[in-house]
Specification:
heterodimer, A: 327 residues, mainly alpha, ABC transporter involved in vitamin B12 uptake, BtuC, two-stranded antiparallel ribbon, 73% helix, B: 512 residues, alpha/beta, Rossmann fold, six-stranded mixed β-sheet, 16 helices, 25% strand
Chain lengths: 327, 512
């Protein structure tokens, strides 16, 4: 019994990590006033960029070092998602394009980009139509050696690859920065009221760019984790599913607090896979259970809007462009 | 004068597209003095000050601080020159505390420590006599508290030159006196203070010297002690105009609208209107005075059927039949058809009456489209009406087909008021119809309201300038925190009396 619970928790965490990356990135972005709906696409690109990097490194050498096996996909992933976030930033911040339209377009583009390159590579080089980056994935999946010996405790706490721990650390750092530092205060001011931030001498454009690009890169890591750790380095088209949207829902659920989103991501992860543990479900009834995270998000929205506390609201200037000389 | 000026502008110009906001403006302010910058709305006062504060960058001209030329490209540069501006629309983050707002954008060497900052804020407050709680969130504060935060913000940054943009616009007379006392204390402390205003009596009461702007150009600077209201008005407006509004004696007074004990509350259960009772009579102008947000909007919307009324009754007497109707049972459309007109001019002007992207003729149709007989739009009549209004009210617009959004504030208001009047109402409600208008347009609006009154319309006028209310209206209803605190005769009442009524409320939560 206890083993089953431990297993459920472990799987919930594994499911939750991509969401945690995505929501941490999106929270940083939204705190700067940018509603980046391109996050699902960016996570796709983050994943496939890592795949490309890993693939070429694996092919280039007979004896890959595990350090480079980790570092190269990490860097290519950051690069790919960074470029995507940069495109979004340039369009919405510099050119002041509509954020929703830009974001949705990037999601469509990112998904297509991922499927095209991931799918092509799998077709060209993979066996049986799928590409397996075994060595890279082994490096990513390396967990604490003593995990096996600790039974359930080990399963719950120590059985993950390093990126899972990194996700939590990144989220906690983001929470600390937002809450306790001057940079965080200024970033929040930009998202709440850019005119005020501007008048206070804060470089609004720079804050928006940096927050959006860093946020995009963090979100992209969610895609990388999914491919390298969760699916053991196997790329399948569309495999990432709707996790990007779930990450955005998680932002609302967590009330724009990355530390809340650590627990939220595990809850969402759990709800996402709960159907696996309920006996007697058909393929069609499974889908009902997959709805649960969204249902919970809607409930949270209702409860929060009933309580009407200003601190629980999204940044006031979210989704709007800022233009200083507009009168 | 031999002493160096704290701040000097030489031939500063700024254009927005084809509009010249400032043309070769000169301005000088010395340490230890209060300088008023006086001018009508749209005379370029705020633009000029925004250039000093680094919000805009001048196209032309020079700025000197302490005798040395200064380049102010951003608000940050302005801070470095020890210039601080308190904007008319507060630049505060609502969900932050006073302290967080005050330290925002600062780079203190000691590091980031909100507790230490709060202690310094208390220190400053004591020195100049402010009352403020550094840990209170902005959205929980009253308007005057927010203003205090703004002032402390610039003092905290060590500003020696303070610019205040229309600081008294949102304050009660009592709060204004308090603010003036603080400003005098700062002047005696050696600070240079610039205050932008269009209220003459404040200029005379507070400042040492006055600089007047008209249509973006500087007209001149005079010493306050050596001038008077008439001279300043002339400088400001260009020609002598009578400050008197023609007020005729009300005729044929009959009850048109009787509001009895109405109550309203917001979604959170906060009382917006508390047992409001009054009568509006045909042939007179009923003024409504009160601090912004005291329930004026809710009151008008209740009558127009746009606001849910919890209890009480709103009785309307039909001018033709004399029949009594309760407006509470009617839809907004039915109320309109009965001749009750709301020309509501909310803060953002376009908000509730007009559609910005539609042209003037189309905006006329918003009221008449239901009368069309075929499935196609009947465009001719609204077009004629639009042209009439443009002619009669001197609306400045390239054509009838120009989107309303592109007109200036004054012209937008004229279109809105013109449309509501054109339908010959029996009750006309106007909220802040002259906000943002220059003196000439304001008087045109007053004249229109007076004409309506003489035609036997019951006019309800919500205003913010007490002088105007006293000169225009026949009776003034004063509202404070959703309660009627008094109804006075405008011919005999004084400003102080009304000011006291405006603040006659228990508890401090009214401002929100």
């Amino acid at each position: 019994m206890f083993d089953t619970i431990a297993l459920v928790i472990q799987r919930a965490v594994v499911q939750g990590i991509p969401l945690l990356y995505g929501s941490t990135g999106e929270i940083l972005t939204e705190k700067s006033g940018n509603l980046n709906l391109g996050i699902p696409g960016i996570m796709y690109v983050g994943g496939v960029s890592g795949v490309i990097g890993a693939f070429f490194y694996e092919r280039s050498t007979e004896t890959p070092s595990s350090f480079l096996l980790v570092l190269i996909p990490l860097l290519t992933s950051l690069f790919g998602s960074g470029i995507m976030a940069l495109i979004y930033s340039f369009l919405t911040i510099t050119l002041r394009a509509n954020q929703n339209v830009t974001g949705l377009t990037l999601t469509i583009f990112g998904t297509g980009f991922g499927n095209f390159f991931g799918g092509s590579m799998a077709n060209l080089f993979g066996e049986g139509g799928s590409l397996a980056l075994t060595e890279t994935s082994l490096a990513f999946q390396t967990s604490f050696p003593f995990a096996d010996r600790l039974g359930s405790i080990g399963t719950i706490f120590f059985s993950y690859g390093f990126m899972a721990y990194m996700a939590i650390i990144v989220a906690l750092i983001a929470a600390f920065v937002l809450k306790k530092t001057r940079v965080g205060l200024q970033l929040r001011a930009v998202g709440e009221n850019p005119a005020t931030a501007d008048a206070a001498g804060i470089n609004v454009t720079r804050y928006k760019y940096v927050a959006t690009v860093v946020g995009g890169m963090i979100a992209g890591l969610g895609g990388l984790y999914f491919i390298m750790d969760y699916t053991s380095g196997v790329w399948t088209n569309g495999g990432f599913g709707d996790r990007g949207w779930l990450a955005i829902a998680l932002v609302i659920f967590a009330l724009w607090k990355p530390n809340v989103s650590v627990l939220g991501s595990i809850l969402f992860g759990g709800l996402y896979i709960v159907y696996l543990f309920i006996p007697g479900l058909e393929r069609s009834t499974q889908e009902l259970f997959k709805m649960l995270p969204y249902v919970v998000t809607i409930l949270v929205l209702i409860i929060v809007s009933m309580r009407k506390k200003r601190e629980y609201q999204p940044p006031e200037h979210l989704g709007l462009s800022y233009f200083r000389e507009e009168r | 004068m031999s002493k160096t000026a704290a701040l000097e502008l030489k031939k500063v110009s700024k254009r927005f597209g084809s509009v010249v906001a400032n043309h070769q403006v000169d301005l000088t302010v010395y340490q230890g003095e209060i300088l008023s910058v006086l001018g009508e709305n749209g005379s370029g006062k705020t633009t000029l000050m925004n250039m000093i504060a680094g919000i805009y960058y001048p196209d032309d001209g020079q700025i000197f601080v302490d005798g040395k030329e200064a380049v102010i490209r951003s608000p940050k540069d302005a801070f470095d020159y020890k210039i601080g501006m308190i904007h008319q629309h507060f630049k505060l983050v609502d969900v932050f505390t006073a302290t967080e707002n005050i330290v925002l954008g600062l780079r203190e060497e000691k590091g980031f420590d909100l507790k230490k900052s709060a202690a310094r804020i208390r220190e400053i407050s004591e020195k100049y006599g402010f009352e403020i709680d550094p840990d209170k969130k902005i959205y929980q504060m009253s308007v005057s508290e927010k203003q205090t935060v703004e002032i402390i913000k610039v003092l905290y940054r060590g500003a020696d030159i303070l610019i205040l943009d229309e600081p008294t616009a949102v304050l009660t007379p009592q709060e204004t006196q308090k603010l003036f006392a603080v400003l005098r204390r700062m002047r005696d402390d050696g600070k240079a203070i610039i205050i932008i205003t269009h209220k003459l009596h404040e200029v005379l009461a507070l400042s040492d010297r006055v600089s007047v702007l008209r249509k973006g150009e500087s007209i001149g600077t005079v010493i306050t002690a050596e001038t008077n209201e008439a001279q300043l008005t002339e400088m400001m407006v260009g020609k002598k105009i009578s400050l008197n509004i023609d007020r005729s004696e009300p005729k044929n007074l009959t009850d048109r609208l009787v509001v009895r004990n109405i109550n309203c509350s917001s979604r959170d259960g906060v009382k917006l209107l508390d047992n409001v009772t009054f009568t509006a009579r045909s042939g007179e102008i009923l003024g409504i005075a009160g601090i912004a947000g005291s329930g004026q909007r809710e009151l008008l919307e209740s009558i127009a059927g746009l606001q849910h009324v919890d209890s009480g009754e709103i009785l309307y007497y039909d001018p033709k039949t004399g029949a009594e109707e309760n407006l509470r049972d009617k839809t907004p459309l039915q109320i309109r058809e009965m001749g009750v007109r709301l020309s509501f001019v909310p803060e953002d002007r376009l908000g509730m009456g007009l559609v910005g992207n539609m042209d003037i003729a189309e905006n006329m149709m918003l009221r008449s489209y239901r009368r069309g007989k075929s499935i196609f739009l009947e465009k001719k009549q609204p077009r004629t009406l639009a042209e009439e209004i443009i002619k009669q009210l001197e609306v400045v617009t390239p054509s009838v087909n120009t989107p309303v959004r592109r007109l200036s504030g004054g012209n937008v208001q004229k279109v809105l008021v013109g449309r509501e009047i054109s339908s010959s109402p029996s009750v006309l409600m106007a909220a802040y119809p002259v906000r943002g208008l220059d003196i000439n347009s304001s008087y045109l609006i007053y004249k229109l309201l007076n004409e309506q009154k003489e035609n036997g319309v019951a006019v309800i006028f919500v205003g913010e300038d007490l002088d105007v209310l006293l000169e225009l209206c026949d009776r003034i209803l004063v509202i404070g925190a959703g309660r009627v605190t008094g109804i006075v005769d405008a011919r005999t009442a004084t400003k102080e009396e009304i000011g006291l009524l405006m603040t006659k409320t228990e508890g401090g939560e009214a401002h929100g």
